[in-house]
DNA sequence: ACGTACATACCAACCGTATGGTATGTACGC
DNA sequence: GCGTACATACCATACGGTTGGTATGTACGT
């Protein structure tokens, strides 16, 4: 899709660079707090290039959410937590994996679509929907392992489902990110993830 | 503090009306997405009145977080969940209370300071700190009941504390709000709160 | 093989408006 | 008459978005 040329080797990558800039800057300042000029400056492109690729700022928000969904799902698909044979171990390994990447600057480990959801859910439904798809699709990848663990360990659940537990894991992570941002301390978020892991062990083991 | 007059009976309440407007509009559009004119219009005051009470938009953000902390802590202090004699029942009643108020429009039941934290934690440290205080102080009100429940039920916790569990409840609620906004469905949030309640029961009963 | 037609990717400069913020004045209570 | 609580009018800038253009690549008929 990119198109390199002789005199301008970067040519063709403006769209991707804008999406990467959006991922980084929106996580720092939020969607409304991020200006088109911010993005152009960070990506090293002009506003003409920006509006060539995105018809509006809202369109970039949607594309950024989709870009996030694509890149993160690729990351999780190749992560090592799928290896254990016991499905419960896979779920717990997923939790460990999520915990392990909570470190450093909150702007770098927190979730783009969770952040965008908060401020766009009323004003920009298209962005909200793209964010919802990203979150729910990721949660859905956990359902088979949870369901298999329930079956294997003879868990009888009358008042909850694999789907609701999968979504709950995402709620805990999103909430943990908020605490980490508020306190500027990843450790607070990791403690919540510990509670989540303990819950799943109590529930399924 | 308010000062009524003959020709302008609303006079004196501009600051409070601005803070109420901030509480409502920032929850809909976020802090950056909310303009000073939005607030003045909703509060029915002029920009002169606005800058008489708040030296900047950031100052209003801080005041709005403090206003939120004050009004919500008053609400929770007089809520009925403190009545049970068993401290575990009080904690569970708190969860039930939080679940019960999750209904209707997400903009009305979600948390102002959780929303503001997300977009201000880098750009406006003063706002972030006010948000953190609001969240952590509220979490701290749960600690005595959790600690008492641990003692009463002989819970032996080597790897977690009453404080971390109290904060975890707030993480779950904040995360549940994000899912509710993304899906535009309070039910998703309530299911996460159910998981939280189940966790506390497994842990402390 | 080559010219034409078209599409893609980008740039520089500009525009109308909305934004946060200010300067100045006035009504009112004490 | 003095401080507080506002109102009116205004400003410099930043904002999202537009315009018109150029360079590069591709499809295709001949």
Automatic annotation (TrEMBL), chains A, B:
Transcription found in the keyword field: yes
A Gene Ontology molecular function term of the record: DNA binding
Domain HTH tetR-type: 12-72
Keywords: DNA-binding, Transcription, Transcription regulation
A Pfam match: TetR_N
InterPro entries, alphabetized: Homeodomain-like_sf (IPR009057), HTH_TetR (IPR001647), Tet_transcr_reg_TetR-rel_C_sf (IPR036271), TetR_C (IPR011075)
UniProt DNA-binding region: 35-54
Protein name: Transcriptional regulator, TetR family
Organism: Sulfitobacter brevis
């Amino acid at each position: 899709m990119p198109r390199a040329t002789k005199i301008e080797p970067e040519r063709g990558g403006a769209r991707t660079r804008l999406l990467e800039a959006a991922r980084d800057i929106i996580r720092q300042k939020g969607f409304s707090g991020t200006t088109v000029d911010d993005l152009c400056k960070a990506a090293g492109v002009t506003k003409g290039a920006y509006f060539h690729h995105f018809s509006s700022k809202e369109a970039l928000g949607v594309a950024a959410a989709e870009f996030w969904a694509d890149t993160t799902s690729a990351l999780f698909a190749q992560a090592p937590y799928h290896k254990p044979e016991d499905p419960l171990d896979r779920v717990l390994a997923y939790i460990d994996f999520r915990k392990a990447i909570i470190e450093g600057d909150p702007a770098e480990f927190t979730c783009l679509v969770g952040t965008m959801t908060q401020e766009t859910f009323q004003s920009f439904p298209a962005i909200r929907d793209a964010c919802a798809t990203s979150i729910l699709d990721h949660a859905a990848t956990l359902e088979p392992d949870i369901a298999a663990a329930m079956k294997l360990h003879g868990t009888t659940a009358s008042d909850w489902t694999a789907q609701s537990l999968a979504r709950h894991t995402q709620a805990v992570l999103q909430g943990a990110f908020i605490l980490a941002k508020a306190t500027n301390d990843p450790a607070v978020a990791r403690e919540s993830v510990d509670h989540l892991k303990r819950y799943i062990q109590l529930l399924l083991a």
